[in-house]
Amino acid sequence: MKKYEFFGASDDLFCVCGSALEEQCDSGQGNKMTYSLGNDKENVILIHGQYAENGDCWSITIEPVSEDLLPLAGWSFEYNPKDYGCQLFVTTPEDIECNIYQK
Questions:
Q1: Measuring CA to CA, how many Å separate 25 from each of 51, 80, 89, 93, 101?
Q2: Comparing C-alpha atoms, which of 6, 3, 2 is closest to residue 79?
Q3: Residue 84: pLDDT above 80?
């Protein structure tokens, strides 16, 4: 199993770190950042980080790419309050990789 952590690090950085992945932080476009979790065949879910202009905090949302891929066997999610908003831990099967999402 792999475990990834997503969190806002300041008012302009959204980060991910975890299994064999050095911490990556990026400000994205207009304080929005998206990472994909998937294998070599397809993306499974998207993790969106959005900085609230009037709330001074990051929000994190999870977007399944297709209902055909649900439920996600072997996946777990944990969501906690943290500085600058919240943090999300995602545990995935070993074949899942995390990448900056490119449309």
A1: 14, 19, 16, 23, 13
A2: 6
A3: no
